[in-house]
Amino acid sequence: MDKKYSAYICTGCGIGDAVEIEAMTGIVTGEMRMECKSHQALCSTAGRTMIEKDINDDGVNTVVIIACSPRVMKDEFDFGADKITVRVNLREQVAWSNGADADKEYVQEQASDYVRMGCTQAKKTDLPEPYKLDKELNKRILVMGGGIAGLTAAQEAAKAGNEVTLVEKEGKLGGKALGWRKQFPTKAPWSELEEPSISGLVRAVEENSKITVKTATEVARIAGCPGHFKVSFKDAGTKNEWDAPAKVGVDEQDKIAKGEMENPNNGLQAYTDADPNAEVFGAVVLATGWKPADVSEYEHLGYGNFKNVVTNAEFEKLASAGKISRPSDGKLVESVAFIQSPGGEEHDRDFPYCNSVTSMVSLKQAKYVREDNSDAKAYILYQHMRTPGNMEMFYKWAQNDDGIFMTKATVTKVNEEGDGSLSVEMKNTLLNEDLSIQVDMVVLAAGMVPTTANNPTINLSYRQGPAFLDLDMFDGYADSHFICFPYETRRTGVYACGGVRKATTMEETIDDATGAALKAIQCIESADRGVAVHPRSGDSTYPEFFFQRCTQCKRCTEECPFGALDDDEKGTPLPNPTRCRRCGTCMGACPERIIGFKNYNIDMIGSMVKAIEVPDDDEDKLRFLALVCENDAYPALDMAAMRRHGINNLVRFIPVRCLGSVNVVWIKDALSSGMDGVILLGCKYGDDYQCHFVKGSELADKRMANIGETLGSLGLEPERVAMRQVAINEFNKVPEIIQEFVDEITALGPNPFKGF
Amino acid sequence: MTDERSAPGSGGVLVVGGGISGLTAALEAAEVGNDVFLIEKNPYLGGRVAQLNQYFPKLCPPSCGLEINYQRIKNNRKVRVYPMTEVKSVDGSAGNYQVTVETKPRGVNNNCTACNACVEVCPEERANAFNFNMDKTKAIYKPHDHAFPMKYAIDMSACSKCGKCKEACKYDAIDLEMEANTFTLDVKSIVWSTGWNPYDPAKMDNLNFASSDAIITNMMMERLAAPGGPTGGKILRPGDNKEPESFAFVQCAGSRDENHLEYCSYICCMATLKQITYIRAQYPEAKVTVFYIDLRTPGKYEKFREKLMSDPNVFFVKGKVADIIPSDDGGVTVIAENAVTGEKVQEKVDLAILATGMQPAANQGMGLTIDSNGFVVTDEDKAMIAAGCAKKAADVVTTTQNSTAAAMKAIQASRR
Fold it and tell me: What span, in angstroms and rounded, lies between the C-alpha atoms of A642 and A644?
């Protein structure tokens, strides 16, 4: 677009008191060659009318608002999608971050730099154009797994009007629930067990004209991207040339090329090859569920050695088949012990992969024992009875049955007696003594292992491999934004629900699957509009590549947290913008600096850095650059300003989409222009990471460690570049963090390259 | 988009309650393409989680996720937000509801820039409900550090209408004569995400909440530990500001009790373990005793429990607290029976924290189906949809999941 610029300085909220407005106007109209006006309250109706008049009468289409933080007054300064608006934050970062006793000259220089940076940004930014998929957008949803989760997701998506294909590897739909005798209560008063509802759900799905069911079928591979996933199906249990290839990273590629290692994907089609028989889908719901855990490692409990020790899953089968009888001799059971915690005296955990479901399964199965034989006794031996929320009422109901005995107990041993009966030894019971009880059967509350724990399951034909990432961090469950945004995996367009996410009750699974179906529809609608999904939902920019200068270094394909980039045989990236979450990690990774967004790119930020004036002969006026995460550190700075904490005015802040997008060239730009230090403020990383793009701050930290070595070889102290982790609520602490950095560099002395 | 001045549109989804659940339901629906009205009774969004210092088990600040959600609102013209607004009546039926809502007078209009000049001149004070009345603000106040929308408000019950704020405001943002505004929204479905209140500790006579400043609730503890709280994040005993050397947590304060809340409130065990990390960060030597019935830390929360239980100065007693007795030195004695050993335990501590449960906000009338404990039951045919802790006691991750499901139900209703 042909840009017509105009800048507007607000003098309200203390800005006019803190800085000389005329001098700033002079910078805009002089150095920056833009029109400039000021107003005492730019956000007021009068202020906005002034701007709108220039837009309407003079054709201004690029507006620089020199006022408050971009986090506030968003609507007031929205002049339409066809206008560019750049915000310069003089209120929070200058007026409210300098005390009354601050040196006016320093404050003026600080404000002037921000004005230069903002006007520069306006010159370098462009209007985004939404990405249009180069293939036909498909709105059909693939649901993998035909248990409660998958059936629910399919039905809910169909109810919203979408076409669905449901694929199940077994010969019939229904999953684990087919083997249930009864199910947990799903409504108030949360007591009585319910008749299984699974057959009704299966029938509803089978009769739904919007849902195509494929049983005895598996997904071999999923290629493509949201809006256009290409899915190869195969008969369950078979191997196929279109099976998803294993991940072959840069190191493995080298070894294969040198003949040092066999290609694990021999016999398979290359991951980028197109299966002519593939079916096309817009998004995927993963509902492949769980498998019963193996409990044979707990030798003291006798599983595998004693016939009458079974798992809860095996007991459910027995109970569904008729009256419960002992596996060893078919005797009708008179007493059963349910063991919740396998740790003996070592620990009081439940079995792995239990969540709270197995506590409730034991209650349910204890009831079966009582239903089949009113004289029978059920013993539930627990360390912690886990019946959260409304399930407490279910627990109460079971407690009222005088044939069900429950106690906290440390189960130390299960022994077999001559006739196949079992004795259970326990300590620390609520009866204040060590006990041994005789029972016909022992049932172990084994967990529910997600199918994703030991198998890629989702079978993506992606450069970064077929499986979800972070599986170890989430104990094999498919997740990546646990707590606030649980549906956001690191594979855009694929939404997990049910047992692949956690061991859950049917009631929770139904909610979870309903939500996953919504996310699938939402992703398709976003792809259709050419905008990003979470966390930059609605963003219509996307990374563009200048391929002529690509050196095939593969850093972007390796580092993208979302696996958005595939590559060709030479290693040139093949972007998939509908997989992309717009964090800019690729831009930060690229040593050739050929990746950028319309409104966020190497040249833009680099030019803003270079717009900062660096005095070359004044040791008191050092200059620092702070590149800060716009999601967390930047709001923390705003809140520090609202509290008038005071922030060192030698520092110039630039918000970035994510620290992962920080390209080291910006740091070189800063240091070569004589700035004395660069600090990156980003989110906590590690197991409890807070980065909205999962890996951004961690990657930035690694890159800064590497740049430290380069600086050392140039004779610059590595301490001049630092990264600090700042949480959004650390607004009382962030001024100190910055001051400490400034003090540290001040002690080192000015950048020796200053003035060159 | 926050736009209190917008004329109400037609169609779409009404979300009642702007906590984490309502925000999630509203945004998930709007990002599919539906029009959404989000109403909230407080002057700010974020609800209960805005008051929390950290989430368990990641120990991350809730404002981090809220910030993203607020950005999503600002970037989405499909969402209209109405703070200080409540439902007055619901007419019509699924697919065609006319909902009358009332916005209470904020006393501050949209011209407010949050410059704080008004607060500097205001002569009146009010107890700060956001901090559970542990400190005061002026009668005109910023709701809290991370308030969204970032606009001030006047507590009309504390305001003397002296007009000083109006004089000080350069932006004509103050309207002391502002009146309630009633208007009607036409929607196809309604999501009820009205959330929860901490169970009133005064209802448990034996816990003597009102008798001593040394007895606080777990939500008060969140504010004491929060950087924006009444003590700037320092855990001090209310009243005398003593640095406590010993703490007791009283689990199931109201929950799992037929005389109070019949159900388990789901979050209190983990909340207590989390709050022990707050204590440990500030008082490395402090002694902490937890009185519990069961430790409900299932699934991925087990690791967190084990880490906390390995702390040699944290003691766990399985036993329900019978009494809390104030003592002369400002502390309290917590009395319980150890269910495993049968011994009577008397623990003298500087601060006792009641792990009070979740009570669903009073939801009545409006055509809602309510269960015996006050939770909202979804009625799909009526397009009346429950979400978050209005539906059941749950942690944040479960809440965001079921609120996403609620958005789906709302969208289905709009496509019928």
Answer: 5
User: A693 with A658: CB under 8 angstroms?
Assistant: yes
- Domain regions of chain B by residue span: 13-104+180-195+361-415, 200-357
Distances in Å between the Cα of A195 and the Cα atoms of A185, A366, A483, A741 are 9, 16, 33, 65
Could you tell me the two tokens for A631? 């999601």
Who among A430, A522, A732 is closest to B32 (CB)? A522
Enumerate residues 6+ apart whose C-beta is below 8 A from A287: A143, A144, A145, A147, A149, A150, A153, A496, A497, A498, A500, A513, A516
* pTM exceeding 0.90: yes
Domain B200-357, what architecture? 3-Layer(bba) Sandwich (3.50)
Name B136's Cβ contacts closer than 8 Å, sequence gap at least 6.
Answer: B125, B126, B127, B128
Residue type, A156: E
Please, what are the domains in chain A?
A: 1-127 (3.40.50), 141-291+451-529 (3.50.50.60), 295-446 (3.50.50.60), 544-595 (3.30.70.20), 600-756 (3.40.50)
- A566-594 pLDDT tens trace: 999 999 999 999 999 999 999 999 999 99
What chain A residue is nearest to B408 in terms of C-alpha separation? A518
Q: Taking the CA atoms of chain A, what radius of gyration do you get in angstroms?
A: 31
Q: What is the ipTM of this complex?
A: 0.96
Q: Is the model more confident about B39 or about A257?
A: B39
Phi, psi (degrees; rounded to nearest 5) at B166: -60, -40
Alpha-carbon distance values, A259 to A139, A252, A559, B9, B410 (Å)? 44, 10, 26, 67, 58
How many residues in chain A?
756
Nearest CB partner across the interface for A392, out of B69, B111, B263 = B263
Average pLDDT over chain A, rounded to whole?
96
Residue partners of B167: CB distance under 8 A and separation at least 6: B121
Q: Residues of B with CB below 8 A from A505's CB?
A: none
Q: For the domain made up of B13-104+180-195+361-415, give the CATH fold.
A: FAD/NAD(P)-binding domain (3.50.50)
Q: Which of A533, A535, A731 sits opposite B145 (nearest CB)?
A: A731
Q: Residue A212 forms beta bridges with which residues?
A: A165
Nearest CA in chain B to A11: B170
Q: What is the pLDDT of residues B43-52, one digit of tens each?
A: 999 999 999 9
B254: left (phi over 0), alpha (psi -120 to 50) or beta: left
In the DSSP assignment, the letter for residue A283 is E
Among residues B274, B250, B202, which one has the least CA distance to residue B349?
B250
Residue pLDDT, tens place only, B105-141 = 999 999 999 999 999 999 999 999 999 999 999 999 9
Please tell me the predicted confidence (pLDDT) of residue A113.
Answer: 98
| Average pLDDT over every residue of B394-408 | 97
pLDDT above 90 for A275: yes
Mean pLDDT of the region A398-404: 96
Q: What is the pLDDT of residues A337-384, one digit of tens each?
A: 999 999 999 999 999 999 999 999 999 999 999 999 999 999 999 999
Identity of the residue numbered A54? D
Compute the average pLDDT of residues A26-38.
97
Q: Within 13 Å and on the Cβ side, how many CA atoms surround A72?
A: 26
Over 70: is that where the pLDDT of B4 sits?
no
Chain A neighbors of B31, CB-CB under 8 A:
522, 525-526, 533, 537-538
Using one digit for the tens of pLDDT, what is the confidence trace for A115-144?
999 999 999 999 999 999 999 999 999 999
Look at B111 and A732 and tell me if their CB atoms are within 8 Å. Answer: no
B307 token code pair = 């880490």
What burial letters (b/e) apply to B347-380, b meaning 16+ CB within 10 Å?
A: bebbbbbbbbbbbbbebeebebebbebebbebee
